[in-house]
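User: I'm putting together a teaching handout on how sequence relates to shape, and I'd like one worked example. Could you take ArsR family transcriptional regulator from Myceligenerans xiligouense, show the sequence you're using, and then write out its predicted structure as tokens right after it?

Assistant: Happy to. First the sequence, then the structure tokens directly below it.
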Amino acid sequence: MHADKKMCGMEPSSEYVDLAAEVLSILSDPTRIRIVLALRQVDELPVGALAEIVGKKPSGVSQHLARLRMARMVTTRQEGTSVLYRLTDEHAIAVVAEAIKQAEHAVANGQLPPHHHSAGQPRAGS
């Protein structure tokens, strides 16, 4: 049973801790977070469209995409003369989503953050 926990990487002594820190480091840039969020909304996008969405120059976005691609968080597909970028899997968005939830808690000033409110449910204190 202990071996199963270690294999999944959830033990403090896991061999994946250093790699997890690298993942968090790569996702520590606001532009890269915006890219991940943009690719979550639209399955595939070229650099120019991503640059417009995140409000940065295509050359800068291209550099961020290269880092995400090296980390295997995004992948590419050629369509004619365009290179389309997409998330490799759901894990990068899961990390970003949890970080955003934590950020919401950090600024909630003791109130329930937005992700705790479901549609049609009254807010605390109302």
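A couple of points you could highlight for students: The two ends are 47 Å apart (CA to CA). Confidence is low (pLDDT under 50) at residues 120-126.
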